[in-house]
Amino acid sequence: MGLKLLKTEEKIVAMLALDKLEDLLKVYPYRYDHNEVIAFEDWKLSDKVFFNGVLLNKPRVAYFNRRSSANFDIEYEGNIIHCRIYNRPWVNKLEVGANINIQGKYNGQNNVAVSNYSLTSLEDNLGLFPVYSLSAGISIQAYRKFVKKVYDQYHHEIIDDLPNNLKAKYKLLDLKTALKYIHFPNSLEEITLGRRTLKYREFLRFNLEAQLRIQDFKSHNKVPKEFDQAKLEALINNLDFALTTDQRSALDQLLGDLNSTKIMNRLLQGDVGSGKTIVAALLIYANYLSGSQSAFMAPTELLAIQQEEYLKGVFKGLDVNVASLYSAKDQKAKQAILNALASGEIDVIVGTHSLFQDDTVFLDLGLVVIDEQQRFGVNQRSQLFAKGIKVDRLLMSATPIPRTMASVLFADMDISTIREKPAYRKEIKTKLIKENSMKPILNEIINHLKNGEQIYVVTPAIEDDEEVNVASVEQIYKSLNIVFNQIEKLDVKVASLHGKQDSDLKNQIMQDFASGHYDVLVATTVIEVGIDNPNANIIVIYDANYFGLSQLHQLRGRVGRSNKQAYAYLLSKTKDPDALAKLEFIESHTDGFEISEYDLQVRGPGDVIGIRQSGIPNFILGDLEKDKAMMEIAKTDAIEIIRVLDNPDYHDIMESVRIKNNIEGVE
Ligand code: ADP
Ligand code: MG
Question: Which of 105, 259, 281, 492 is most buried when burial is the number of CB atoms within 10 A of its CB?
């Protein structure tokens, strides 16, 4: 690294895990502060405001836990503005009478929640300022200076890899200018232009990667896997239930892949509760019959344990050796499993991240199933694929992705879809309760409990917090105990579950809940994915407006897994019209496809939480809904580039895509 770095700059490099300093320029601002002076009379509630005034009194700092808040007043155009700033206790050193620039949010009645302040001149603070996401202890000012320093040092070396013909065709900027406009804009127009170029480049690279993968899969044939179909059908006939038509046709597609010379690269999507696991289990059995090992990857230990039990249940009486691997297992047990895996004694391994660690070695890994695929990074997945040769891959996802979008996003994959749910299931009844308390539904809940039903209660937080006033596991756990057992004099066993507990405890609590030892489980979103306990038929979600749409849908999917009527109660006293619309939508819709389509429309895939939840690739700038047309064009361009590869104009971009895109486990 060529530059001499300050301490904070070293911190930034570590925070972003930068390999090369120039990579800092690829970290884009997520928004801009547009500092303009607006007269106080024109401030509206929740407006972002910027002003400059005189400090009237010494800031008063108050501490709570390890946080602090400070209050002070500023005179601005003859008005007294009450300012509050969090976690900057050193503001008490500011001198009364000082001239200060303040940036913040207007909370009404002359109150401003300050996000930033500075003592430099007003002129220096006016204009457009990029905002980046930073971790604590790094100031935005220092960060911006660092970006400038890196740009000044390296901008000559930036390789403009966009092909000239495309740049001319779409009137795109060269990469250097685009980066300059994004990081140091002089106008809103520059930002728009810079983003347009970078967005196209991002889409083009995405599509080039997908096209390269398609080529790679095509050029590597495998030996078709043979298996005894009669044995498989016998197992299917032995299940407690009949497969739905969708499950059967998905299974047939998967078996077709297994038995073909093409390496399987398939996404199985199906709404929560649609029964994907059994389809995967049957595929695993076919793979076992063909003589190779299978790996089933789950995102959490709770799920790994659950899926291990599930597979053991399905394969009961058969000679399939199923084991599991996750970090909480003790070292000796782990070693024994690793040995048995390497010797081929284990046929099916279920596990978490432990599966793709270096010391996990297979004798002959032939199939990888990844449950809740959106929870894993691309690199993690390919590390696992690389543990075998020409491994068949099945990715499963509970977020149905609208077809048009799926054909772009998963261009390199085949897709199977389970649409219908098992027939006996009743639709979950969802009710929005416009209060953040169980009071209005207490009688209903008590009746459910008296009928011996089990209940999930979900809260956004683990513990109480002075800053964010939302229901916490701790607080609801206490109050439900009091309400049910002391006031109502029932005998209700309440348990609590959250991410801070160690995994043995979590597993124990889940098992005890599944076995009926507890009636009520108060939990955070740790129960969000995959948990399957058909005895729990009621879910109550506190502060429901804090959760994303698909998250609410996933949470609700924890119930309604038996033939009993299930209920979801969404508690929220939000007045925000957008949040209410969201909750009302989920109240009146149960189909996961409709929900994800609505979600994409309202929030757009650009929403960070939405992306994490839905498993849609995270584009930094592009918005898959709004920029659909650009994405389609980029796909066409990518296909063309791959077709006429030897055009020297395409050399640079292919070089950079290839470096990033080494597909493992195919050869
Ligand atoms: P998901 O698709 O959300 O992963 P699961 O695979 O966990 O769903 O299935 C939910 C429940 O439905 C499981 O208990 C499973 O055994 C059951 N199930 C799956 N398929 C059927 C079916 N065809 N008929 C009845 N129950 C089924
Ligand atoms: Mg599942």
Answer: 281
